[in-house]
Every structure is written in structure tokens, then in C-alpha cells.
Here is the input.
Amino acid sequence: MTLPKIPLVAVLGSPIAHSKSPMLHGAWLKQLGLKGHYIPIDVSIDDLPDVLKMLPKMGFVGANVTIPHKQAVMSLAESISDRAAIIGAANTLTFRDSGGFFADNTDGFGFIENIRQSEPDWQPNAGPALVLGAGGASRAILAALLDVGVPEIILSNRTRARADQLRDDFGARVTVVDWVKVPSYIEGALTLVNTTSLGMEGKADLTLNLDGLRPETLVTDIVYTPLETTLLKTAKAAGCKTVDGLGMLIYQAVPGFERWFGQRPIVDDSIRHLLLS
Ligand code: ATR
Here is the structure.
């Protein structure tokens, strides 16, 4: 009698010790009573191609990739999802029988799903979004916002050239404004997103004049340490709906888990608390 194989999944990055993904996937496996293991592996850029060739031979069915490998896996993939191609980076890999892998990007899905689950009345197509930051997270978020029908994205970044590059990549619905001019665009925004690292524990705070903020505006932050950033605190005080960044981390993990382990995981308060502990 041959026993069924126990699926193995890795998260590849460097450094990787801080990753919350093993805790998240481990908790879901336990909660659903599924057999499987999710293992963090520190991989250097030089070793990445060899590691990706070896993993399927070792019983791995997939992998998450994080900094600094999200772009590098794109040229190593056998096939790529449309959304990963648009973003130019992948975070969720699925190995195929051929030994190659399919590369997908679920960051944008995680971003949208997080907002939808906590604020189901959010109407992204009802008005412009103001997006702060033009790094990797911003790329995924722009793609996702455009995909759900945001009519216009006002994009601003401390280094304007990075925002201009995103506008060139994502097209006419994106307008770039100077970082110092952001306060004058707050009032017109129906969705306000911080994709910068400002406000994170140990980093500078996002010091932005939010006087124009209207209560209709939904404000969300990808920073989740602390859970309630100064931006979210100020927005809440202005009567806005706010969505913290922890849910994006959780929801981006859902499609991969379902693909690799065969069941859709449950996102509930116990998972949130676990990740905060
Ligand atoms: P990620 O992939 O997580 O988005 P990143 O590519 O390093 O990370 O981008 C970080 C974002 O935070 C960038 O938009 C960065 O602005 P720059 O492009 O000008 O560097 C922004 N950021 C970081 N520190 C900042 C600061 N002190 N003031 C303004 N923006 C800052």
C-alpha cells in the first residue's frame, strides 16, 4: 500500500526568520485537520534557480516568495498569471509535474479582499483613489484598484520618478502628483491608501495634513505594526471607515493555501490574534 504524499510548501526569502507566513499556514493546517508542512527557507539570490529546481523533487507542491525574490522568479517560471505579468512580480508559486512552476501574484487580491471583507459597502468605482508610495506593494495595489474599476488613481511618491514609471506602466487612469502637494488631493479621494513604510514601528511616521479628509473616504494602510497607524487613527477620528493592513497579509495567503493543500482556509479573529501575538 502506498501512503498519500504529505504536501510540503516553502516560503523563500532572505532574511526569512521574521515571516509570519509559516505561523499562518500552520494554523490553517491545524484548524482544518489537513496533513502538510509549510517551511521557511533562507535562500540567496544566487541559489534561487537551483533551489526552485530541487524543491519539487523533494516533495514540495508550491512556495511563497518574498523579498528579495519576487521579481527574480518571473524569469524562471514556466508560466505566469496575467496579474503577475502586469505587476512584474510573483509571490505564489505552484510546481507542475514537468518540474517547472506557475507564478502568480496574490497581493492585489489580498488588498481588495481585505477591504471587501471589512467594508462590504465600499464602492471603488464611485470616485478617485489617492495612493501614497510607488514601491513593489504599490504596483500590486494599483493593478488591483484598476481591475475593480477605480475611475482615477492619484499617485504620489517621495521619489517622483518611481511614480512616473508606474503611470507609464499602468496608463491613463493614473495621475502623478508631487509629494508635497498630496494634502490638496485628500478631499477629492474616496479611497486613500498608504503603501509606503511610513508609520511602521521603528520608521518615521506619515506626517500628512489630513484636514481635508471627508467621512465618506475609506482609508487603508498596508502597515500593520502597529495595527492602528497614526493615519488610521486620524482617519477614524475624522469619521472615516478604516481598514488595517493585517488582513492583506492574511488574504494574500488564501489562494495559495487552497491551491496547495486543497481547502479554502477560514479567516477569523483567532487567526488575526495569532499573527499579532
Ligand atoms: P515595498 O515593496 O514594500 O513597497 P519599497 O519598494 O522599498 O517597498 O517601497 C517603499 C515605499 O515607501 C516607497 O514608495 C518609498 O518612497 P521612495 O520611492 O521615495 O523611496 C516609501 N518611503 C520609505 N520611506 C519614506 C520616507 N521617509 N518618506 C516618504 N516615503 C518613504
User: Anything to note?
Assistant: The longest helix spans residues 21-32.
